Amino acid sequence: MIALPLIRQATALQYGEVLREGHSHPCVMDCLDDYGEDRRLAVKFRSTVYGGNRALIAELLASLLASALSIPVAAPFIVDCDASLGEAVADAHIAKQIRESAGFNFGSEFLQPARTVPPRWPLSGVYLDEALKVFFLDAIIQNADRSELKPNLLVYRGGLIVIDHEQALPFMHGAVGREPWVANELTYLRNHIFYSGLRGKTLDFGEIATLFVALDELRIQEHLNVIPKAWRLTNKDCQMYINYISTAQSKLSLIINNLNDFLR
Known about the structure:
This protein is an alpha+beta fold and 264 residues long. The chain has helices spanning 53-68, 92-100, 125-140, 195-198, 206-213, 217-225, 235-250, 252-262; strands at residues 8-18, 27-33, 38-44, 76-81, 103-109, 115-116, 153-156, 159-162. The strands form two sheets. The chain has a five-stranded mixed beta barrel. Helix 6 packs antiparallel against helix 7 (235-250).
């Protein structure tokens, strides 16, 4: 086991079931974490997500950033899967995915019982504050994949839990980014599950803005340091991410103005 200061590592022991939501179809796996505790994790395989390692990197960085901003997230894990696990799986397609994803994959705590946030969920009180933070997060990580059709958001024990960030940080995938400090780059968020619920309301970004600017380069580097070498993150990639967060912090007032105008 390698030492990972901000994230737990686990070893997959047995396949449980496939989750049919989304295109990547993560699998629930029985795992043993690096403290010897049994874990039931939803594992995204490198061979099934669009972008492969890049998507796993986006998942991990977005999860760590959400946690740093005090946004509840299904606890992330790096899950070591042995190719031989596929031999006991009756579904030939799933068995092939496991074989082709031997090594480190991205996993998150499988939360039960939890339910998906329904479309046009009325926002008030604590849920309004949580929705605002999620909207801010998705603007920062440029996440277009949290819509009414695909919320990627759970209600668990009375609070909101963000999940599924493989399409976040598109510039890390080599795609064109959508910088939130550019006003006309926010249009993709019109499809966001909370767009209609937040529009026209009095919004206060103060708390999450304070947490965001408090992230220093050392903390951001710590997030990058926990990414497995097998995912092939380069020094250039790391500097790109550090520069992006730093630029977003320096333009935070402009970002908040753009978000307020966009949600007016």
